[in-house]
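Consider this today:
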Amino acid sequence: MMAFAHHRTKGAKSTHPSRRIWKRFKKNRAALIGLGLILVEVILAIFAPLVAPYDPIKMDLRSARQPPSSQHLVGADELGRDVLSRIIYGCRISLTLGLVSVGIGLSFGMLLGGPSGYFGGRLDIIAMRFIDVLMSFPTILLAILVVTVVGPGLYNAMLAVGVAQVPLYARLVRGLILKLKEKEFVDAARALGVSNSRIIIRHILPNCLSPLLVQTTLNIASAILSAAALGFLGLGAQPPTPEWGAMLSKGRLYMRVAPHIMTFPGLAIMLTVLAFNLMGDGLRDAIDPRMSRFRVAKG
């Protein structure tokens, strides 16, 4: 009897949803590559002072625009600063920009989309018309508008990209809640006298986590790209902060005589965005295998 109970317990553990998702996720090589790249960047960001060969803001004019060599593995910029060190420290800034801005977008999107979808009526009309106004602006244009109002800078860039993400999350949360609020477990909670706020927080939002997690992973990539665009335009992190978009902006002035100054920050942005997209696609397929089968059949 004990052996049978042990077998049942072991079987229950093996069928846990998170285990099934991970089992499907790790079969996707592209998703694993994306996850590996992200982990490498996280490690570089955490241990940047130990990994970076030079101080990222220390100038050495004698090495200005020096091409890749044994002294500077990927070259030096226009002020003689080591490009590799600046890229490594830039991991901290870009990952922080992506996470914080998506966190802002998710938080305010849930505040707008949650009550709007659950209560409906006039609240839904007002909230959605406000979201429609925000969605009438392209994401990067909305971010530029916010930065223009609050001023350039690293923290303002996070806020700007976060505000630009709000409409995406508000629409997604509203749509999910419109489906979930008609389910039997919500009706049962209402019959037991559970308050509306508790139903939303304890019963509905946990069932929204899977699609929100996938969307968040994909949106981090677009947030990093938007933050880099703001930095390229001079509206994001200000010099001498080693931010990839700002490095690209400075490097374009020396594209003919020292192409390495902008090439390697550009590659860093490309690999980071690609990594999050690969991981997001793999996570979506792992959570909902039907998406994977549909794409295979369509192909």
